[in-house]
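Q: What does the assembly look like in three dimensions?
Context provided by user:
Components: two
Sequences:
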Amino acid sequence: MEKYWKIFYNGIIPGNPVFVLLLGMCATLGTTSSAMNGLMMGVATAAVLVCSNLVISLIKNLVPDKVRIPAFIVVIATFVTVLQLVVNAWLPALNASLGIFIPLIVVNCILLGRAEAFASKNGIVASLLDGLGAGVGFTFALVLLGASRELLGTGRLFGAMIYPEDYGMLLFVLAPGAFIALGYLIAIVNKIRKVS
Amino acid sequence: MKKLASTLPNMILSLGAITVAAGALLGWVYTVTKEPIEQQAMQQQVAAISAVAPKFDNNPETDRWETEVNGVPVTVYPAMMGDRLVGAAVKAASFNGFAGEIVVMCGFDADGTVRDYQVLSQAETPGLGSKMQEWFRDPTGARSVIGKNPGSTSFYVSKDTGGEIDAITAATISSRAFLEIMRTAFESYRQYASTHGLDMAAASGSDANSGASQQHKDTKEVKEEKKTEVSDADSGASERKDDKKHNERDDRIYFQSPKYKENR
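A: Here is the predicted structure of the complete assembly.
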């Protein structure tokens, strides 16, 4: 039991995809202009991550080593396309706010990284938990980054006004603010990890 | 089970099986989601049309008329009452904004007066150009385009010669693109009415008037084109150099300058 908890927890703080591994930066910086967008992107990525980890750990013995990368990419791309079609059909609002970043989940390094480093070597339950952990960690990081950018940039949090927009620093909603906020968050997380 | 060895037949079989399975799954999901996706797109379209166009009793979707202005596709959705033209919703786009394509659904009354508009998609700077959905309906000053007729009012930003619409503060490029879309939409609507032998109800009274302003506009159109060429060659900097008039406000400034705050 403890072993499984460790696998799950590893993705959240010790091996957080964004703050520690620095993977999937494109989606991280691009979609986190608000906390809500960060949350949606995190959940979408986590869903694909769990599914792909599960399937890859199931088929790992059927895939010869030399073709494992193309095989994993096909699996990941399939789930992303399924997700995109489903979002298009039933969640048009999500589609409008994430747009191009949904298909770009395919090239998010976290997915292939977890498939290659974990799911292709471990059992189904462990892979499922690993995917879930990394997904939750990614979502957590994106929400944190999105929330700080939204708060500093527009004075809102999840769309609710905290202070008047006039005092916000618009820079934080734009691309440069994403880098600045991410840098400070990484520093804070590093500090916390060292202390604990 | 032991892992399959990397022999050629194994690799082909394995990868082949995975892709076939993936293809089958995708095919199934595609057929399941096809109808809802089409319905969503249709609903958004119809919602946008009925939000901007006058009341109609035809089906603007099936009566639509497609044309092309300067390489950009424009769709006119006529609003009819019986067989009388009461107005139209026109979907037009422009790539001359600050970032990417801007698509706007413009609603016109029969005589071409702007009824309403809806920005369907844009990627302008958040907080500046992205305000176009609210800005051009704000009755403050000369911001609003609603109730104005592009045939008699000059749909250019007020810092351009003769322009009669106030640009979004610190987002003149986005504003120019927006007004360009409005003009394109109006022209297409007028074209539609004339090619289909339909009467733009109130146009008869102001025919001479609109003809004159049309000429006036054409010369300006040429000027605008020249300006675009310059700014295309070298984005912001050269445009500012070329056009001293625009120096007073920096279009591309991202931060909140004191001027920006003051204007709010």
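Follow-up: The first helix of chain A runs from residue 2 to 10.
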